[in-house]
């Protein structure tokens, strides 16, 4: 599937503000065999005084920009053409949880895809007794890791209420879990905490969703902004699988990956140190158009 | 083995050593395994034994006085806040023979090299993990393994430059490593201060005692750091977390001692990959930073986003290879407790040799055999977080001594280890050696650990011949008993032959005049406000004294002039009827707080004078002593302020920093004189107000000599506003401001005159052409507003 993607994030300040230095993770990543960035450009307004494009530890494209002059508005915009390669359904090769722990122990690697990065506490996802207990409640004996991931994601989808006004970008996952509400970021953080709690390495994926569904299908939640979902490690054979708890489905060719990390903090689309004394407002737009 | 030291009754040291015990199963520094005094201690103990108790007390006091005068203190953190305590020096040094020290040094150098290789691997090819020599999760889940630094090759090629090792002596007499300090090791500056203090206590003895000097070590480090610069146009910076850090004193001290620039994160800005210092002369590059703050705080953009003491873009600058960081960001990883379980094997893998100096026996409970061993031997173990970087004896609330579990509660240990195994390590509950401390006229053995320092120089690793000893408070010699509340001691490495006396000063033939350093904007800001605050205190004290003198004369505060003055004082935040000590002490603290942030630029005498002022302010008499008594105390206080000003203005080199201090004083003085004259030289002011103005302006004598008449408005305005020779006059101070600004960076630029000097010139000229009757109360108030505006311009121009 081929997509043309445009996305922009805009800020307006009621007095001139020093933007300083900002990290942008907005352009889709190339994932061999799954996704290819055919062409892409990231632009800023005003133009940056400094700009460095590189890959971060997890292999995500990141653009570092710096501004010298104070400004009343800022806009970050991408245009990209991406090919998403549909994955054929495969057999469930994942081990039961007990064997997953052994495979993990024997996995002597620290590369970006290694599961070890995704098991311990991270900046935004701390271990939580409540979420671990919830995950344990949804375990059945002898189940494969993949089955656990799907069952847990499905349970969260059932128990959680999607509410775009209930949480913010800074909401703690425990808080969102206690109230059983939130948006894709909260759903994903909660599912990650649940999975890590029972020993399954889990990470955060940010990306875009196709805006209009194929004929006869419902529009997916989260298509009007940047979306987030979860990846979980299902053993050496099972590898990484991606699950979207906000829509209760295994990720397929409707999802375009921008960045992967341990939680939101690793993949935040705009991360910077803003020096402003005034108030600010932000807006964003995303369009993901399939090219037939 | 327990044993008392055998000393013949006639021995002069017998009294000193009476009752000195070597505890069972514990090594002692003074006494060897056979119960005999180690020869290296003998001359010192004999010297000490010959001194009377009074002499000893006097000499110890001399050392303590030195430390107080030098401003050495430590910060005690409690729930109620932090508190400055006097430095707990145990005056008896720890003495080690150089032969033994050479062996320790060889072990430490091997360890430094090993840690460098481990760092290079963990931030590079990761062969240790791939080879199964280090479990992946101990790295991947480690908060000190900084992913943004992975793959970043340090400028100059090395991760580690300055290391400390905590070492102790086992019961069998051999030395071992308790922990590695690789992040931002503290203590070297304190070791130096302990040395100075201890050598003053034992002045006559020290000179001939063949004690290796520390200066060569510091010179080696300074030269190595300077050698990392790309050229001589820049200075090495010390990156400090700021005055609230418990080792800030050390940062200021060592910055002065080594001639490095003391910087904080907000002093720095990254531009095009280079790290720049915000100075009063604009951005200036810095390419070597000795980091004293924990890595995660160094860059809020790529590391801890909540850090307010970092520099956005610092990681990017390191990635660009533009700045050498000592030690590399991320080297704190090597302090991880659990690594101690693997380092002995890693040494063999990476270096092809065994550790020369063993480290504390450690077992990671993520491995089944090790977990079983820790369980079986729990009563001999300290069990705690695997990823902790605390030393074994530092209480962290999470580490538990296995035997603290009651026998019946053993299940709790096994449950704990079973549930959280990979997050835990067991460490042998080590026993440290004891060393003598002087208590009530005798030597007493107390447990000790020693911090040793190692630096990288172009000629290889150098070990400081000495160190920083920490001594436990109680005689319980098990390591865990070494708690806060202990003391510290100097460490003497003694040779059989005379040693070279050595100082930091370069040999005479290499004389070179150092470049005047750049002044960071933050330091300029603090110096400027220090000048203003001290002047503000002086003004307030003069006003208060005038009030009390008049009260003493009239016997009642119910007079128009006293009322008017009382109102004026109230506008300054003082109520003369209430106790003034607290309000005055607060003002002095404002000044001290500024001075505290620029202590590296400030003489010790100046700092002490400010401390004296603070003490004097707090001791001001209360309302019961209103009138003469208080006036007298205030007069004395004024003389103390003059003492401070004298120290600063007579002795301080005319660096740019001094100009800001002077500027602050001049501006404050001009500003407050405008207000004083607008109040007391006004037509509506009560009788006696003109004399009061002259008195507050400290110009009684001048007035008498200059004018043949009694005070009238014209003479007072002439003397206190328009005079170009009276240092209390507004015009005089505007001239001073003009002169100082002309010498500041940026004022001599070609092209149109910048805003600040132009404004100063306008005010200066405007006042120069006025006659006393043209300078009205209204004009004075406008001038006061204009000087306040100048302060804003100074801030915009230099502190932004």
Q: Which structural class best describes the helix and strand composition of chain B?
A: alpha+beta
Shape estimate of chain A: globular
Distance between the termini of chain A: 7 Å
Number of helices of chain A: 7
**Share of helix of chain B, binned:** 40-55%
Overall outline of chain B: globular
Strand count, sense and closure of the main sheet of chain A?
Answer: 5 strands, antiparallel
CATH topology (level 3) name of the largest domain in chain A: C8orf32 fold
How many strands, which pairing sense, and closed or not: the largest β-sheet of chain B?
Answer: 8 strands, mixed
Q: What Rg of chain A do the Cα atoms give?
A: 19 Å
Please report the total strand number of chain A as a whole number: 15
What is the mean pLDDT of chain A?
90
Percent of residues in helices of chain A comes to 10-25%
Provide the β-strand percentage band of chain B. 5-15%
Share of β-strand residues of chain A: 35-45%
- CATH C-level name of the largest domain in chain A: Alpha Beta
Overall pLDDT score of chain B: 88
Chain pair forming the biggest interface? A-B, 27 and 25 residues
Low-confidence blocks of residues of chain A: none
Summarize this entry quickly.
The complex is a heterodimer of chains A (292) and B (800). With 292 residues, chain A is an alpha+beta fold.
What would your notes on this structure say?
The complex is a heterodimer of chains A (292) and B (800). Chain A is an alpha+beta fold and 292 residues long. Chain A has seven helices and 15 strands. Chain A has helices spanning 97-105, 129-137, 145-159, 173-179, 184-197, 235-238, 264-267, and strands at residues 2-17, 21-24, 35-45, 50-55, 61-66, 71-84, 161-162, 181-182, 202-209, 227-233, 240-244, 249-250, 255-261, 270-272, 280-290. In chain A, strands 12-11-10-9-13 form a five-stranded antiparallel beta sheet. In chain A, helix 3 crosses helix 5 and helix 4 (173-179) crosses helix 5 (184-197). Chain A starts with a strand and ends with a strand. The mean pLDDT of chain A is 90. Chain B has 800 residues and is of the alpha+beta class. Among the domains of chain B are: 361-428, 2-Layer Sandwich (Dna Ligase, domain 1), CATH 3.30.1490; 519-652, no CATH class; 653-800, no CATH class. In chain B, strands 5, 6, 7, 19, 20, 21, 22 and 23 form an eight-stranded mixed beta sheet that branches. In chain B, strands 9-8-13-14 form a four-stranded parallel beta sheet, with helices on one face. Chain B has a four-stranded antiparallel beta sheet with strand order 15-18-16-17, covered by helices on one side. In chain B, strand 13, helix 11 and strand 14 form a beta-alpha-beta unit. Residues 477-483 of chain B have low confidence and may be disordered. Chains A and B meet through loops of A and helix 6 of B.
